[in-house]
Amino acid sequence: MKKTLSLIAILFALSTASFAQKEKGEKEGKEKITVPAAVKGALSKKYPDASKVTWEKEKSNYEANWGGKSGEDKSVQFTPTGEFIEIVNAISVSELPKPVLAYVKEHYKGAKITEAGKVTDAKGKISYEAEVNRKDIIFDEKGNFVKAEN
Known about the structure:
single chain, alpha+beta, Nuclear Transport Factor 2, Chain: A, 8-stranded antiparallel sheet, 3 helices
């Protein structure tokens, strides 16, 4: 009986510990990821004011999201070694360059832009993202179409 109670106590402790390890702010329904210390360190060094950060895996890279009501006003990507790739700042649809709006109107008739972002990469190059029909449509700094991503 003592062995059974000890085993139950150990199993309970292990399950509680694994539940407690869940990343702060991890979105429900998303797979738990382990973010390398180099990536977390790079985020806190480059964006010391970032708080309530949630993490996602973006291909082989790591994406940190924070800010605003949705918690995703800022989205930053880093390589697994902590090298900065880009930051996407959420903007209103009206802040997109006019050619972006014209392109979406012509090529996605009747669809609405559900999210918009201004992207700045590691070299300071600016581009824009417009989410349409759950796809990210990428435009250059002047609003010229570059590509559509799934």
